[in-house]
Amino acid sequence: xxxxxxxxxxxxxxxxxxxxxxxxxxxxxxxxxxxxxxxxxxxxxxxxxxxxxxxxxxxxxxxxxxxxxxxxxxxxxxxxxxxxxxxxxxxxxxxxxxxxxxxxxxxxxxxxxxxxxxxxxxxxxxxxxxxxxxx
Amino acid sequence: xxxxxxxxxxxxxxxxxxxxxxxxxxxxxxxxxxxxxxxxxxxxxxxxxxxxxxxxxxxxxxxxxxxxxxxxxxxxxxxxxxxxxxxxxxxxxxxxxxxxxxxxxxxxxxxxxxxxxxxxxxxxxxxxxxxxxxxxxxxxxxxxxxxxxxxxxxxxxxxxxxxxxxxxxxxxxxxxxxxxxxxxxxxxxxxxxxxxxxxxxxxxx
Lengths: 135, 205
Description:
Largest interface: A-B, 30 and 37 residues
Structural class of chain A: mainly alpha
Distance between the termini of chain B: 87 Å
Number of domains of chain A: 2
Number of helices of chain A: 6
Number of helices of chain B: 8
Largest sheet of chain B: none
Oligomer: heterodimer
Shape of chain A: rod-shaped
Radius of gyration of chain A: 46 Å
Helix content of chain A: over 70%
Shape of chain B: globular
Order of helices and strands of chain A: HHHHHH
Number of domains of chain B: 2
Number of strands of chain A: 0
Structural class of chain B: mainly alpha
Number of strands of chain B: 0
Largest sheet of chain A: none
Distance between the termini of chain A: 150 Å
């Protein structure tokens, strides 16, 4: 083998190949362009999907955590309802105190309302005060 | 108020960071498209020479483009070429292996005729009758002879020759694309050149 001829041979091979690439017809070129665009588009879709898929375990863990907290809170619903009822009563009391119209009736018979308050505080019914007699 | 100002700056920073990431991604996609446009025809010709089928060659190139874009787009662009041609060569080898298995199965299938076996695309077999200038005609004939000689080479020698000679890769890049050592590349390439010279030297002289 003549070593000096080898680069010429290799160069000729390379030139022939380059010529065959340049002479590709338009149909092949067009199909390659379409293939390139399709590949890039699919890769972008796949990338978006894989990003979403990557976070799926996190979404699952968060959902499980929320469900667990909800179930744990659900063990004592009566206490929460009682607290809600107390707060509702407090609001109603506040409305009573704030209303001028409803405070007027307290001035009619204050002893009667003292008796009701004492009854509510002691849990036992005190003797009803004797009605005032005229004269 | 100062808290609000700090918060506003933070959001602005975040917004700017997001825009920068988008710009970077867009730039990367453009670079990748330019790279693919620069190699797709050469890759197609390599696949076509090895597979002797236009549609199969197009499939191999499209699959290689998709795999590169999907799996290696974030890698440095300097690595794209050996990676891309490695995917192409793997695709060629897979198709060759599959078609070999199919041919063997069909040979055992009772009543299987030559018509049912895989044949080359008939369009590819129709001779081009368009008039060509003498130089172009000679070039085409010389290329056809080179293609025939390349097909007769062992697969690894053909790969080494295509990547080193046609694609102009250095030994390290070729080794990366072929998934072998640089020493193997040198051996395969040297043998390929020797064989081709023996077969084509007289014809081209």
